Structure formats: structure tokens, C-alpha cells
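Reviewers of the previous submission asked for a worked example of the structure-prediction workflow described in the proposal, so we include one complete record here. The input consisted solely of the amino acid sequence. No template or homolog information was supplied to the procedure at any stage.
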Amino acid sequence: MKYLKLLLLMLISTTIYAAPGNGPYTPDKPNENISSSMSTIETRIRQAAVRVTVPFSGGHGSGSYIKYKDVHLVFTAQHVSDGPLGVSYLVTYKQESHIGTLIYSDPINDIAILYLATPFRAVDPIKFNPLEDVASVGTNIVYSGYPSTHKLMSFTGRVAGYENGPGIGKHIILQTYGWFGCSGSMIYTLKGQQIGVLYGVDVEYYPSTQVQENMIWVVPINKVKIDKALGDFCRGHLGKRPKACK
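From that input alone, the workflow returned the following C-alpha cells.
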């Protein structure tokens, strides 16, 4: 019962977002003061974290900019991009925005994939390099996302354990931080492998409702079979066939 109630508290923020103009521009390169204690991989993970804005409502979630062979994708949570296949979402990193088209949607495991026809110019995607097995308890993790009205934030933590949901199998519980707007963030190992997609925060209902923002639910990335996930996209793709479809 607790798990079912958890699904009602998805981490999608409803802050208002104004889309940039349509005129041509040259995006600024990322310019942040990042401590030397942050590894190169952690920095790349941070720079690949994008904001996914929901059409019309102005709500947003987070996502990760990932390259699989020759296609540029954004992995996010399905409840962030819960429209039918083909719907467009605004994908933003700082001052640069592109349209992402929904090409894969898994409402049971809460994972979705957007296709970017135009790659980002200011930042590079992370190579798709998923863990084959569910991350072990104690695995150190890192992720970046956009909680609530805040700008981009980076967090660390570790795998605390697992829970089994009805019909979905083993999901990961992290000891880290999460809040509304972080849904869709990709969780990574310190070596840069994808662990899974953040989709929920734990909630206690007795004696009163309490959001446990340091207990975060993640669907393992091995729930996604990438060639199958790209099936509809590949079958409907016009023009030169991408290597990802071969």
C-alpha cells in the first residue's frame, strides 16, 4: 500500500518556464566554478543533466543527455513525459534549448526516452553505458537535476537497498537527496555507468504524512532494452537510417 501511495507523489515540479525566442543564437559554453575535488566524470554528468519542460502546464522534470551510437537521446521519467509517442518536450541546458520527441514510454517502470534531432552545441552527451546488473548495495552514486525552482544541483549518495513493487520486480532505494523536479534524473556510478532513472521519493503516512527526501526510488536501467526501445523510432524514421537502427 505504501508503494502505491508513493507513485502518487512523483517528483515533477510545476514551476513556470518561459521558452526562449526562436531567433538564431550561439549558446554560451558552460562557465561554472567547479571544485577540483569533482572528478571529470562527475563534471560531465552534471553538464549532461537537462531540464525537461512539459507542454502547456509549465511543469518540469529532469533528464540526462545521452548518445547511443549515432543518435542523441534524453532519458527521463515516464510521468514527466507521459504523452503519446510523438509528443514534443522542451529540453534545456542553461541558455540552449531543443525539441525532444517522445519515442519510448514505459509507464510500468516509469522510464521514457526523447529523441533530439538537433544535438546540443554547448555540451556533450554521455555515452550510453548501462550497468548490466542491478547496482549492489553500497555502490556510490552521483547525479544532477533540477529540484523545485532551483537551478542545476549535483548530489552524491549510495545504494541503500531494494524494494519489490507489484508487477515491476526489484527497484533501487538510494540514500541521497531528491525533491520535486528531480524526477527523470539519471543515476550514475562514479565511473560514469548508468544505474537507473530517479522517479520517486519515499513517504511515511503514520502518524502524519512525511516526505523522506533522503530515501529515493530508482528504476534500474536494465529494465530498458535499448534496441527494442528504439524500435518504433527506427521503423518510422525517414531519410538515412541511423547506425543505432542497424
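Helices lie at 2-6, 40-47, 226-229, 231-236. We consider this example representative of the routine output the project will generate in years two and three.
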